[in-house]
Amino acid sequence: MIDLGTIIRGRRQELRLTQQALADMSGVSVRVIKQIETSGGNPSLRTIVKLLQSLGLQLKIG
Question: Which one, out of 4, 7, 25, 62, has a CA that is 20 to 30 A from the CA of 36?
Answer without folding.
Answer: 62
